[in-house]
Amino acid sequence: MKEGIIIVNKPEGMTSHDVVDFVRRRLKVRRVGHAGTLDPIATGVLLILVGKSTKLFNHFLNFDKEYIATMTLGKRTTSGDREGRVIETKSYNHIIEDKVKDVFNSYIGNIFQVPPMISALKHRGKRLYSLAHRGIEVERAARPIIIKEFRLLEFKPPNIKFYLKCSKGTYVRQLAEDVARDLNCVGYISEIQRLSVGPFDISQALSLSQINESNLQSYSL
């Protein structure tokens, strides 16, 4: 029986479920899942679970994650990323590099984050994103997360490139919106790459064309 994990470098433009379907067809196996959704605009490490390894889903979700991402200031979108419709604009001319660093530092540690409406969390049995697509916004409870590292990599307004290491349950899109708010501005995620999920690193990740049965790795708790 085919089972194990595959570390995939998800290409831009595909959903995580698209990658699951691709692996299912490529390996000719029905039982395939993923651990940790990546948005269509995101690239990078996506853990694909095959066969009995799908039972390890919750274990993989608990891993820390690392990202390199770019937030673009001056516009807020319905989705929190570049694919959404612009719903607010604001000047970013007052923002300086040192202020960005100060705001980043203020998020490091144990904090609470209100999940975005564009998420797979449920409200009374309905996915938040399905409500959002119907123009419905509901109150969401803030949830504890841990920001372990949050560093400015490049400051070229309106774009701010950063490195992030965070706990499970962290929404990078929401973090970007919150940072922009603290800068008295608005913003959205324009690029994002996941560098790692726990011990699984981008250097180990395979392109879709490289995936075959020999790539299945065993993993035990």
CATH superfamily of the largest domain: Pseudouridine synthase
Number of domains: 2
- SSE series: EHEEHEEEHEEEHEEHEE
Largest sheet: 9 strands, mixed
Q: How many beta-strand elements?
A: 13
Q: Which structural category fits the helices and strands?
A: alpha+beta
**Which fold does the CATH topology of the largest domain refer to?**
Pseudouridine synthase
Quickly list its features.
nine-stranded mixed β-sheet, alpha+beta, 5 helices, 20% helix, Pseudouridine synthase, 2 domains, 13 strands, two-stranded antiparallel ribbon, 221 residues, elongated
Molecular structure report:
The protein has two domains: 4-62 and 198-215, 2-Layer Sandwich (Pseudouridine synthase), CATH 3.30.2350.10; 65-197, Pseudouridine synthase (2-Layer Sandwich). The strands form three sheets. Strands 1, 2, 3, 4, 7, 10, 11, 12 and 13 form a nine-stranded mixed beta sheet that branches. The model has no long low-confidence stretch (mean pLDDT 90). It has five helices and 13 strands. It has helices at 16-27, 57-61, 97-107, 128-133, 172-182; strands at 4-10, 32-35, 43-50, 65-73, 75-77, 86-89, 109-113, 122-123, 126-127, 143-156, 159-166, 187-197, 200-201. With 221 residues, the protein is of the alpha+beta class. The protein is 20% helix and 36% strand.
Topology summary:
Layout: E1 4-10, H1 16-27, E2 32-35, E3 43-50, H2 57-61, E4 65-73, E5 75-77, E6 86-89, H3 97-107, E7 109-113, E8 122-123, E9 126-127, H4 128-133, E10 143-156, E11 159-166, H5 172-182, E12 187-197, E13 200-201
Parallel strand pairs: 3-12
Antiparallel strand pairs: 1-3, 2-3, 4-11, 4-12, 5-6, 7-10, 8-9, 10-11, 12-13
